[in-house]
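Many introductory courses stop at the sequence. We go one step further.
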Amino acid sequence: MPGLDRAGAEIIIDLAAVRRNYTYLKERLGRDTELAAVLKANAYGLGVHNIARTLFQAGCRTYFVATLDEGIVLRAVIKEARIYVLNGIVANELDDFFVHRLSPVLNSRSQIERWQSKMRATDGAKLSAALHVDTGMNRLGLSPQDVGILAEAPFKKFFLSLLMSHLACAEIPLHPLNGVQLGRFSEVLEILKFHCEKGMTLSLANSSGIFLGSDFHFDLVRSGAALFGINPTPLQPNPMSEVINFKAKIVQVRRVDSPMTVGYGAAHRVKAPTRIATVPVGYADGFIRALGERASAYIGQFCVPVVGRVSMDAITLDVSSVPESLSQPGAIVDLIGGQRALDTVAEEAGTIGYEVLTRLGDRIPRAYLDGAD
């Protein structure tokens, strides 16, 4: 492991797996439906530069980020692609959208008004935007009342290239809100059909929405977490390829016996002679504090429990069941990936894979593998 020669831990990212995931999702769509990539939060913590280039090579031409700054970083990586900023216009930043050729997602009437004013001020210079209508998430997007008001106003000055909404419960196929949101989105299309520009792209589905069927696909689907191995169908086996493997090495092993304890707060009490291995990874590196006394790791084929609390820079493992020759300082421990599925780790932490990925700390080196698909 190249990073483990100089550091105590390493995150290995399989770019070929990212391409396989993109291809797998694309194949589930109709020929006329585009698959876009959502690369928020530094591509979900995996590094936007390498991930964006990999997806562009796979054929991706439309991307979504959350903030303007994320869009500026992505534009420096990919010169020729459409990039939408999901938060829209939140500050005095309109000029930056034009300089970097980024398309805001307009979420409110005030954002629309600011965009419309900019269009007038630029004397017809066109930069497309997206319009987000809320169909049940009650977070971002135009309310039904706002849609009705908008339908009464001139529309073409927005230079809209995309009309979108966002599913709240797509990972639960039988959730009634899925059908409700589909119906509301169709109603919005009917209300705005005389105002929408010809050729405007329509988008409703996220990664999980792909698996709800073609009625949800429209012209463009936005995939994020599934590209990086998170299960988009949590009630079924994960169809996605594993992308990350978080490894670390043991830095110290000590023998502990009853009635001694391990870690902060004496949270783990030893009941018999035990070998405790310390690994230099903690919550500052994204190994979530809630995993203490709940998670496991692997040394080769041996499953070992995390004992005691997760601290900022270290965790402790009970390696009593592992031959001493395999659990000495320098031995490699698999924390996430391989036999420790990302979604399993998330469940043990009481969270979701999205949070696990985006919490991965910057001080852990990333190694990018790009073997043949």
